[in-house]
Amino acid sequence: MNSLKYQMIIQWSNEDDCFLVGFPDFPNQKWRSHGDTYEEAFHNGLEALEALIIAYKTSGERLPEPRTISQVA
């Protein structure tokens, strides 16, 4: 999917005992997916991001602009 230019944060959670996946470019989407391993979290995160983009497009909601490295610095 060509629109996958968004940040994906993967972080271990002791509380949840798994890796959590978040997309900081999307408002109100702190943790969107998870996985028992980093690899599983990554793959689940890609699927979640694709589903999130499809949901935005289906609802007619405008996708947020992805942050780029020049905007982060």
From TrEMBL:
- Per the record, the coiled-coil ranges are none
Q: What is the recorded name of this protein?
A: Type II toxin-antitoxin system HicB family antitoxin
The residues forming the signal peptide are none
* InterPro entries per the UniProt record, alphabetical: TA_system_antitoxin, TTHA1013/TTHA0281-like
Q: Which organism is it from?
A: Pseudanabaena yagii GIHE-NHR1
Known SUPFAM superfamilies for this protein? TTHA1013/TTHA0281-like
